[in-house]
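Sharing a chain and its predicted structure for anyone who wants a worked example. Both blocks are below, sequence first, tokens second.
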Amino acid sequence: MRRRFKRIIVCFFMIIISFSCNSEKKDSSSTEQNKTSQNTINPNGDSELALLMREMYDEAARVKKQVKNSEPVSLTLDYDKILTAHATDQEEAETPEFKAFAQLYLNSLESLKSAQADQVEGIFSQMVESCIACHKTFCPGPLVRIKKLK
């Protein structure tokens, strides 16, 4: 009887251990799903404009380093797409206000390209401020990230 009881206890613990291993696998797979879903921030998919702006942020972060190191600034993106890229809320992107903010940004980029070495830092700051002004009006989500470019 005692021996049978021990077997039951051992089997019970084996079952518990196997279930805990299975739930651990589920947890790790759900973690992988979370990592994948974090790559796509918008659950409805990312618009062309959102993807462009993420690329613009990455390039601005690179340019910030160039400015800090007194290196020549190099811009590689087609920034004019900001005027034509499909947005999550296309109606907002077609407003005169959005177009004005976009043009202000494009003008600051042109100034940055042709700036003298002693002007680059100030023009870069103006460019970042133009991003902040637009995002305060249209899409405040990325403001915390954009402010890190200052």
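Comments welcome. DSSP finds six helices and no strands in the chain.
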